[in-house]
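Quick one, tokens below:
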């Protein structure tokens, strides 16, 4: 079984992905420990992708969504390998759009009857006064397509029209994209890693995220908090909460059409009602800190290498010859209760 990992220099990418080269090397080592032949490719050109396609691997592990090409359209990796009839991990490009544009996912799930915070999209100068806004204050503002908390800070929480205008302008200048404006949810925050097993059952790993209190008395899960790893990741002990969070995550995962694996972010209001926030379909895989492997560890007691085995399970099952990893049976025995 020959496996290729594909990444690109991603320091400038605002999209979600497995993470830095260090994270990709952790994935590489985990796959080596499974007993497979595997290469890590840092690609910046179509020609480099072509060389991978010529090797016709059994599985390509996509650690980013696309490769940016100067003066050309981005190369979306799911489309590239699908066109070459090469098996790859994760979701297809039509599903990945729900990750790249948060409002697409929210609208799609809202139309399916799944709870999501009320929202609208805004650009500078679009609204003339507070009475023109579709949703009343307080509001929460963030970039439409950024990841890793980029652009999110205490000023994302707005209670006045002047604060709204200021944050809209700064986000638009910084990211050159419309701004997602949501009703502010004042309750607990959760993230849920979901993996589809080879038997199509879902392994669900919900945890609570508790950001530190800022100087302004707010708990905002923004860029600074995520970079410093200063948030607390906790197991959820209350049965009612965990059942509500699990159900919402599964409903979102299934109705978005996610393939193989993904992470669903959820937030509650003060009354405890849970709402879908966003989907991360190429989630971070940095050992020891990224929410996906950490939630699997906290909720289901899995080691990092076991998480990597599980996220590859469906992809390896699509390969020919069929999957025969040397540890899947052992991993399966450790995750019997989902």
């Amino acid at each position: 079984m020959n496996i290729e990992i594909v990444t690109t220099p991603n320091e400038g990418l605002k999209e979600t992905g497995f993470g830095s080269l260090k994270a990709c090397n952790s994935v590489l080592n985990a796959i080596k420990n499974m007993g497979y032949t595997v290469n890590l490719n840092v690609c910046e050109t179509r020609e480099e992708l072509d060389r991978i396609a010529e090797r016709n691997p059994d599985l390509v592990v996509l650690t980013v969504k696309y490769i940016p090409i100067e003066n050309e359209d981005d190369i979306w990796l799911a489309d590239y390998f699908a066109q070459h009839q090469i098996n790859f991990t994760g979701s297809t490009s039509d599903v990945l759009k729900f990750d790249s544009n948060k409002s697409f996912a929210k609208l799609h799930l809202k139309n399916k009857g799944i709870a999501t915070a009320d929202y609208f999209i805004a650009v500078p100068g679009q609204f003339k006064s507070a009475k023109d806004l579709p949703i009343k204050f307080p509001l929460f503002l963030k970039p439409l397509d950024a990841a890793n908390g980029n652009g999110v800070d205490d000023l994302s929480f707005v209670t006045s029209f002047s604060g709204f205008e200021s944050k809209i302008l700064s986000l638009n200048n910084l990211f050159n994209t419309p701004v997602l404006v949501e009703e502010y949810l004042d309750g607990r925050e959760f993230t849920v890693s979901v993996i589809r097993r080879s038997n199509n059952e879902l392994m669900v790993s919900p945890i609570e995220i508790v950001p530190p209190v800022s100087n302004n008395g707010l708990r905002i899960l923004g860029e600074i908090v995520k970079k410093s790893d200063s948030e607390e990741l906790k197991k959820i002990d209350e049965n009612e909460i965990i059942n509500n969070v699990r159900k919402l995550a599964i409903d979102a995962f299934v109705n978005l059409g996610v393939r193989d694996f993904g992470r669903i972010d959820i937030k509650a209001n003060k009354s405890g009602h849970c709402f879908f926030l966003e989907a991360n379909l190429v989630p971070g895989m940095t050992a020891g800190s990224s929410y996906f492997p950490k939630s699997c560890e906290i909720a289901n007691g899995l080691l990092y290498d076991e998480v990597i085995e599980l996220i590859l399970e469906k992809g390896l099952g699509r390969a020919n010859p069929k999957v025969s990893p040397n540890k899947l049976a052992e991993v399966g025995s450790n995750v019997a209760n989902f």
